[in-house]
Amino acid sequence: MYSTTPTDWLETNRKRWDERVPIHLASDFYDVASFRAGKDALRDFERAEVGDVRGKSLLHLQCHVGMDTLSWARHGASRVVGLDFSEPAVEAARDFAAELGLTPEQATFVAADVYDAAQVVPDPSYDIVYTGVGALCWLPDIQRWAETAASLVAPGGFLYLAEFHPLTDILDDATGSRLEHDYFAREAWVEEDPAGYVDSDTPTVHNRSVEWQHPIGEVVSALAAAGLRIDFLREHDMTLYRRFGALEIRDGAYRFPEDRPRVPLMYSLKASKV
């Protein structure tokens, strides 16, 4: 339900994510064994849209356990830095980096609030600032996020964002065919729910979450106002987990059945600093 923003929103969300790190590491969704064996954690469209990262520095904001971050290192990024507000997640990322034989100069992980990134990451700017899927909904202030991210993009570099489409936040969970929420709502969405995108029978204590929905226009406008040039905005008819009961696995991703009209489930954008 929507409500006014609780004063403890940051700590509430941090406790939820801290508790779920071991659950995620043990889950089929993250498939840690395959990642250790060399499987790429990135999506095909991300690799295609970001392009060649060889010899480039990359900062991953809100990196969780670092599997996406380290996948960029496997693709040749000369230096990757991951930042997340969950200390257990950052510790897991550091363990993965050590297992891959990467030095701190090649892969560094920092535990901090994303809004403080410019003050805590080891370098003042990066060729690529990357934000992976499912990050923006945990932030109340997109303008502040955009200003922070833009400040960390090196001249000639770019920000790349892949996200769940905000349209999915207003559709019903069962079928994804009915409008149930206000697309333009700005209030916090506070829920008490043990479920998440990773299936698990593990009992959990910290089930409360505080989230926000951010229409695409708000995100694009914030990045433009922060001084970045929007190179492209693309929408995708697939997603990464069963967000709606009607979704089915097709062509390696969750999509609506072929006999249904398509709607955007994810989007991606690239914004450069010229």
UniProtKB/TrEMBL annotation:
Q: Which GO terms describe its biological process?
A: antibiotic biosynthetic process; methylation
**Statement: the UniProt record of this protein carries the keyword Methyltransferase:** yes
What InterPro entries does the database record attribute to this sequence? Methyltransf_25, SAM-dependent_MTases_sf
Q: According to its UniProt record, what is one Pfam family this protein matches? A: Methyltransf_25
Which CDD domains does this UniProt record tie to the protein? AdoMet_MTases
Output this protein's name. Class I SAM-dependent methyltransferase
Q: Which UniProt keywords apply?
A: Methyltransferase, Transferase
Methyltransferase domain ranges (all copies): 59-157
Organism, per UniProt? Streptomyces alboniger
Indicate yes or no for the key word ATP-binding: no
Q: Which GO molecular function terms does the record list? A: methyltransferase activity
